[in-house]
Amino acid sequence: MAAALTSHGVEAEVFVPSSDPGVVSWDGIRVERVPRERSIVARSVARVLRPLGGSRTELILHLLDARRLARALARRHSERPFDIVQSSNHHLTGFFVRSGAEFRNVIRISASRRLYDQATGLRHGGLSRLTEWLDVRTIRRSDVAYAPSKLLADHFNASYGTDLRVLRPPIVLGTYPTSPPPMTLPERYLIHFGSLGARKGTDAVARALPLAWARDESLEMLWAGPIKGPYLAEFRAAWGAASNRVTVLGPLDKASMYTVLRGAVAAVLPSTMDNLPNTVIESLALGVPVIGSDGASIDELVEHGRSGALVPIGDDAALAEAMLDAWQARAPWIGAGFEVPSGLLEMRPDEAVRRFLSLVAQPSRGAA
User: Fold this and answer.
1) What is the pLDDT of residue 7?
2) Of 4, 67, 310, 326, which is most buried by a Cβ count within 10 Å?
3) Taking the mean position of all CA atoms in its chain, how far away is CA 283?
4) Number of structural domains in the chain
5) DSSP code of 168?
């Protein structure tokens, strides 16, 4: 959003926790890298608790980093006052930002610990409940709060009685595809990319592939993004001799990623839970149809039968069928039949900025 605001005449600054503190310029935007919390005690506590809850045990570190961000913001505000301060619930970065008469305190809700834990099969324990409670407290102390997806807004509003609005993010690719591709690629391929893992549907894709190969051995696929070695080895063992039909590229820089993506027949992105995923937005923006979940907020982006296909979450056979429809060019949304979904129109930078400024100008919750 900062890049979109800046390109439309709004001066923006960014504050981020960093192990390399200092002030830098990124595309003309002032970025203040605030030193991360280095407390040995806090880090030791997080390390001891890690077996009980994975990364969720870093809650204390996130809170300490959030306090540092709020202090850096206050110092900068005293030098150059802000009109609007937007922060996120990601790692609780906005928890210590206070609403008041000096600026509008806007919170962007990027995730729900409760929904994400359910999607990945994790027990919704005390640390998760505490994190979500802190998120709700942050929402209630803000002037305006929003989520990019209706799915997330509906969850918080129904569960906690909040007044979370829906505001789509701007489509800002930041870079463009290179030509030719940076590596040798198959002539045709489907693609699964992003942060590969269970929540992103990687397991579902791995299970659907043998079902598709049983009917068409020519189907080839690219996977791009970080994936743990043992995780991938398990899939390859299950695929057996067919494993050479999946090319794993690993992480790519954005320009290379977009080049590879643009050449795909379709993107296969069946998340079990998500929040308007960038992978889906990027695919559609580049004219690549998406095979995604009928839910997980992907249904808020993909128009079934026009810009791709939506399949029930957990239905491996339906996912395999959609992949075959794309691969064999049976689907009406392949090639010239692809239609840009209407929802992308409100994500054009000019429209997204207009909607953001309009939302921020609305009265605070509880105002007369």
Assistant:
1) 86
2) 326
3) 13
4) 2
5) P
